[in-house]
Structure formats: C-alpha cells, structure tokens
C-alpha cells in the first residue's frame, strides 16, 4: 500500500510542477527535492542530467535561435523549461529508488502486466548491452581511443534498434494473424 501512495504522491508532484512558472521557485523546488534525497542526491541529479541533457540542449538551442530571429526574450523560458524538466526528472529518479512499480500497481492486473512486460524487456536489453560491452572489451587488447568507443557505441545502439524493430514486426504479425487488428475497409 505504501508503494501505491508514493506513486500517487509522485504523480501529484509531477502535475503540480507543471503549474509552477517562476524559475526561482522551480530552482528552490529542485534544491528541496535533492535535499530530501540525502546522500543519494548527487547520483540522482547526475542521472537526471544525463537522461535529459541532449534533448534539453536541442530544444533550448532551437528556442533560443527562434526567439533571437523574432527579437523576443528567451532566457526566462529556457530557464523555466530546463528547471522544470530537471525537477520532474529528479522526482522520477527518486520515485524509482523508493517504489516497487509491480506492487504499486497490484490493484490492476492489466497495468501490472504492462509493467512486468516492460521490466522484462529492459532486462533483456541490459543483458544484451552488457554482452556487447564484454565482447568489445575482450576483443580490444588495449584501451581504445574515445573515437573508437563512440563508433562502437553507435554500432551497438543501431543493433539494439534493429533488434527492437524486428521484434515489434514479429509481434505485429502475430497479433494481425490472430485478428487483433481490423484492417477491413
């Protein structure tokens, strides 16, 4: 029951964060959330920054360029956007540390099934990534340069996407064969 209440509290805090528009208040909320994490605050903020860095950078740069071309102010909006995303990310990583999603969703067999299925897929992809990493390390007698590691990471990501696409095609064909989709007319 505690997991369910924590999950509901997280959902409420995420929704409430979308109503806060003052960058100073958002920054203060980020500090409060991180202070509540204790020793784990450093790892949570690092994970949150890594998770959102590329997307936020692309969106922020796009907004800055667009605003500059239209001669509109952009600083407050970019601060608000990035602080809100950081706040929600920190809340989410904090929730993940504390809540067992399977137990939190035990009131709904359908939701629990979806969570178990997603967690199983994550474990498969983690194992596959670890296998790729181990294979790459075993084939490299010395520590490879950064450029080679990036190239290998790109090939691994492409292989993971290809595997996911093939699995989704097989699943789609299986569902279609069993009449799940109504393609008539």
Q: Largest beta sheet, briefly?
A: none
Please count the beta strands (DSSP E, at least 2 residues each): 0
From the spread of the alpha carbons, the general shape counts as: globular
Distance between the termini: 47 Å
What proportion strand? Answer: under 5%
* Low-confidence runs of at least 5 consecutive residues: none
- Supply the number of structural domains: 2
From the alpha-carbon coordinates, what is the Rg to the nearest angstrom? 21 Å
Oligomer: single chain
- Rounded mean pLDDT score: 88
Secondary-structure element order, N to C: HHHHHHH
The secondary-structure class comes to mainly alpha
Count of helical regions = 7
Q: Fraction of residues in helices?
A: over 70%
Describe this structure in words.
This protein has 185 residues and is mostly helical. It folds into two domains: 2-103, no CATH class; 108-177. It has seven helices and no strands. α2 packs antiparallel against α3, α2 runs parallel beside α4 (75-98) and α3 runs antiparallel to α4. The longest helix is centred in the last third of the chain and has 32 residues, at 146-177. The mean pLDDT is 88.
């Amino acid at each position: 029951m505690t997991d369910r209440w924590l999950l509901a509290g997280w959902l409420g805090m995420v929704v409430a964060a979308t109503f806060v528009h003052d960058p100073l208040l958002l920054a203060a909320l980020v500090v409060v959330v991180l202070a509540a994490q204790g020793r784990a605050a450093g790892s949570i903020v690092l994970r949150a920054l890594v998770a959102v860095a590329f997307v936020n950078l692309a969106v922020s740069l796009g907004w800055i360029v667009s605003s500059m071309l239209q001669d509109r102010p952009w600083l407050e909006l970019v601060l608000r956007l990035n602080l809100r995303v950081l706040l929600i990310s920190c809340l989410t990583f904090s929730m993940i540390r504390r809540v067992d999603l399977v137990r939190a969703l035990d009131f709904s067999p359908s939701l629990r099934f979806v969570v178990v299925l997603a967690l199983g897929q994550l474990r498969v992809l983690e194992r596959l990534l670890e296998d790729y990493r181990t294979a790459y390390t075993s084939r490299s007698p010395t520590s490879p340069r950064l450029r080679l590691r990036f190239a290998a990471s790109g090939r691994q990501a492409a292989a993971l996407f290809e595997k996911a696409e093939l699995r989704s095609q097989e699943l789609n064909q299986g569902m279609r064969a069993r009449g799940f989709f109504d393609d008539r007319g």
